[in-house]
Amino acid sequence: MQWVYLSTGLLFLLLGYLVHVRRWYFLISGYNTMPKEKKAKVNTKALGRLMGHYAYANGSLFLLLGIFEAFSLKINTTPAYVFFGLSTVYLLVKAQKYDGNIFDQEGKLRPGAAKKLAAPLGFTLALFLGVAALLFYLMQPAQVSFLEEGLQVHGLYGKVYPWESLEEIKLVESLPEIQMRTNGAAVGPYLRGHFRTRELGPVKLFVNRKKPPFLCFESGGETVFLNLAHSRKTEEAYAEILRRKGG
Q: Which residues does 164 contact at the CB level (< 8 Å), separation at least 6?
């Protein structure tokens, strides 16, 4: 994962340099497709500076995340993603101010320009609401159902684990040391999906790591950890699984 962060950070920094310093404004989406007469009304210097600051800030942020990952330093990445999302929304909104086709020199909307703003502002609002909804969804505790055929873990990365496949069922008070996220989501203490650990290698997590105990089991060569909204519910789920297994 550190290489994803590092390469993303370097790409942002390069983009900021090319647009802000080298003035390669053709890299700015939307501006590069404008007719020549409309390009003349865009304050490219101010727009390039805005793009540069946005790219420098987020590039540095992703580089830091990559460095933390490389040295196995455990941090909460949620604020970084929130900053990235909010700064992107700010960029999309602020950039419109430098388009002279929409705003006049006094900063007032030109006649008929409101329709041109509807699309980018609508996209920005949809993006913001989508990110907020995704974060809210990922911060919900895991839920399970006890089906006739097996244990169903609901939501993202969930599946049905047949009763006959469940092995090594136990309650543990702590998680193995997590080295990296391979295909999953980490929002604050909520971990969902595939992770690599130091002690057990690849595991699948459906946990709030601040609320032990954790139900652990193996199924089809996969090691799974999960916990529910409250410790009592996790313990009840453990007891029900043992009952279904006849243990």
A: none
Paired residues of 225 in beta bridges: 205, 216
- The full set of domain ranges for the chain reads 3-139, 143-246
The whole-angstrom distance between residue 211's C-alpha and the CA centroid of its chain comes to: 22
Q: Residues 184, 191: contact at Cβ < 8 Å?
A: yes
**Within its chain, how far is the Cα of 46 from the centroid?**
30
133 — pLDDT class (breaks 50, 70, 90): confident
pTM, two decimal places: 0.64
CB 15 within 8 A of CB 25: no
**Is-contact 113 102, C-beta < 8 A?**
yes
* Residue whose tokens read 């529910």: 228
Between CA 124 and CA 85 the distance in angstroms is: 10
Rounded alpha-carbon distances, angstroms, from residue 21 to 14, 24, 42, 52, 98? 10, 8, 17, 8, 18
3-state secondary structure of 8: helix
